[in-house]
Specification:
With about 575 residues, the chain is α/β, with parallel strands linked by helices. The protein has 23 helices and ten strands. The strands form two sheets. The chain has a six-stranded parallel sheet, sandwiched between helices. Helix 5 packs across helix 20. The radius of gyration is 36 Å and the shape is elongated. The relative contact order is 0.10.
Length: about 575
């Protein structure tokens, strides 16, 4: 059997795909059950966090295992296999061990060095043990991963290379400033009472917020978390619990809200956030860049018309024009006046507009006067200008810009009055909330972007060396353990041979007294032990080296060992291993 991992994470897939592929608790259980029921897999464990989904299995066939695990991930995540496949990665044998150990040390985390992953690995192992899906291999692997992660944090300064996702998120809300200075005196709303939400609540309390309100679907858990915060020795924060129905009201009082629930839909919509900040900022609720509305009865004016620097033309001014040039101005920053109106316009669009101008001047008739002008407007300058620009199109294929786009005056975005941190996957808070004036939203996607270029501490190299050493040691132990049942079966067979020969001796020498019988028995056993000692020790050493798996087969063949006897030893060891809990 061989170790295989198939998964996707923030390194291989966009947040939108991770969000869709996230698994509910029930789906995780069903995925593990279906995996061990599948033909290639004998054991299975699932590591599912907010930014990774990894399925570990002990398989007897590599290609069949990859196909089966990929299909099961797609089925249970609800993302089609064809869509999911480009984002999946596969690790096998030592590479799979190296990957999990790196994950346990925080090297593969969104925030390098964060320690929360250790708790998640421990939970994954406990779930697999509870479902009896983890056998000897995965029990050993996950327990060793926990030990490696703890060693990395205790022997190196990997903690200095990054913080928890919660701390990093709060730093992003504070825009790189001191979190304690930013948080001091604020009122916080924490939605959810799981491990991540609890960590967020504790972090906010230690940072100096004045109040923490905890909302959770299970009210008892919210009360328990609030009680822990209130009774904590390192803070004097005021904490209380509220039901989920109170979130909209509490949001109107909060300065910062952190959400991390297991909900499959949005917990906070953009509308609910907008309602929470209404009246708390003088700016419009949506920071869309539009200027203030014009006075009643006065058409809106651009900076270009205010300056009056260009003469008016008929481009885009009359009803029936096939081009919405004012809209072009609003989106691209172009003036609708003069040649700038068609600057950058595609040739086909220009020809369409030229045809409209020509049709408007049939028979030499002039257009009606535009409202607000002194008299009738002569369309000839428009037609001449378009004809000249059309000649340019024939040469360069596109209208050149004659001047820089007109500057667009955008109102300053108001200072945030509500800070939102979304640590859930799938997301709890509508991403559209970031466009609301007075709101600052940080979510998993923005955290991934912010941490992509984060510098790595020198301690990371030391952790990588630890991982490499531990992978080599685990591989050696695994290969040595692979031969152990064969060695045990060999020694058991030798003991049976000794017992059989002593029984024959009793039949031939019935008058042999107990003292002599015991001495003879002990002598025969010492002879057998000495004959087997060197070969068994040496075969364990050889089996621990790369490529040493074949020595077990050699022993079974040379000593004609019963395969069932070897398998019985393995089953006994697996049964003992399952009785142990996570490290």
């Amino acid at each position: 059997m061989s170790l295989l991992v198939v998964g996707l994470s923030h390194r291989s897939a966009p947040v939108s795909v991770l969000e869709r592929a996230s698994l509910t608790a029930d789906a995780q259980v069903k995925l593990l059950q279906d995996t061990v029921a599948a033909e290639p897999a004998a054991e299975a464990a699932l590591l599912a966090t907010c930014n990774r989904i990894e399925l570990y299995a002990d398989v007897d066939k590599f290609h069949a295992g990859v196909a089966e695990l990929s299909t099961l991930l797609a089925q249970h995540s609800g993302v089609g296999l064809e869509e999911l496949t480009p984002y999946l990665y596969v690790h096998y044998e030592d590479r799979a061990v190296h990957h999990l150990f790196s994950v346990a040390c925080g090297l593969d985390s969104m925030v390098v060095g964060e320690g929360q992953i250790l708790g998640q690995i421990k939970d994954s192992l406990a779930r697999a043990q509870e479902l009896n899906s983890a056998g000897r291999l995965l029990n050993d692997l996950f327990q060793q991963a926990l030990r490696v992660g703890k060693r990395a944090h205790s022997e190196t300064g990997i903690d200095r290379a990054g913080q928890s996702l919660v701390t990093f998120g709060l730093e992003q809300l504070a825009e790189g400033g001191d979190v304690e200075t930013w948080a001091r005196g604020k009122k916080a709303l924490v939605i959810g009472a799981g491990s991540m939400s609890s960590l967020a609540a504790a972090t906010l309390a230690r940072a100096g917020v004045a109040e923490v309100v905890v909302a959770n679907r299970t009210f008892d858990r919210a009360e328990r978390l609030a009680q822990i915060l209130t009774e904590g020795d390192d803070t004097d924060v005021l904490a209380r619990a509220v039901p989920m129905e109170s979130v909209p009201v509490e949001l109107t009082r909060a300065d910062v809200a952190v959400s991390c629930t297991g909900a499959t839909g949005l917990v906070l919509t953009a509308e609910s956030v907008a309602a929470a900040v209404e009246g708390r900022t003088a700016a419009p609720s949506v920071a869309d860049g539009d200027g203030p509305p014009a006075p009643d009865g006065e058409p809106g004016r651009t900076a270009a018309t205010e300056r009056g620097s260009l003469p008016a033309t008929g481009l885009g001014g009359e009803d029936g024009c096939p081009l919405d040039l004012p809209a072009v101005q609003g989106t691209a920053g172009f003036s609708v006046l003069g040649e700038a109106a068609v600057a950058g316009m595609a040739a086909a669009d220009l020809e369409q507009h030229a045809a409209w101008v020509d049709n408007g001047t049939v028979g030499g008739a002039q257009r009606a006067a535009r409202p607000g002008t002194a008299g009738p407007l002569d369309p000839t300058p428009d037609a001449d200008a378009i004809a000249a620009l059309a000649a340019t199109v024939a040469t360069v294929g596109r209208i050149p810009e004659r001047r820089r786009p007109e500057p667009v005056d955008e109102p300053p975005r108001p200072e945030p009055v509500l800070f939102l941190l979304d640590l859930a996957m799938p997301r709890d808070i509508d991403a559209a909330a970031h466009r609301l004036g007075g709101v600052r939203l940080v979510d998993i996607e923005s955290l991934a972007e912010a941490s992509a270029g984060a510098p790595m501490a020198a301690d990371v190299d030391q952790v990588r060396r630890i991982v490499s050493d531990e992978v080599a040691a685990f591989g050696a132990a695994l290969r040595a353990a692979h031969i152990t049942p064969t060695v045990v079966a060999l020694r058991t067979m030798a003991a049976d041979v000794v017992a059989s020969e002593i029984a024959r001796l009793d039949g031939r020498l019935p008058g042999l007294d107990d003292k002599h019988r015991a001495e003879i028995t002990q002598t025969v056993r010492r002879v057998v032990d000495k004959l087997l000692h060197a070969p068994t020790v040496r075969v364990k050493q050889l089996a621990a080296e790369p490529g040493g798996a074949g020595y077990a087969d050699a022993l079974r063949t040379l000593f004609d060992l019963d395969p069932e006897a070897v398998a019985a030893v393995s089953r006994a060891e697996d049964s003992t291993e399952k009785d142990r809990g996570p490290a």
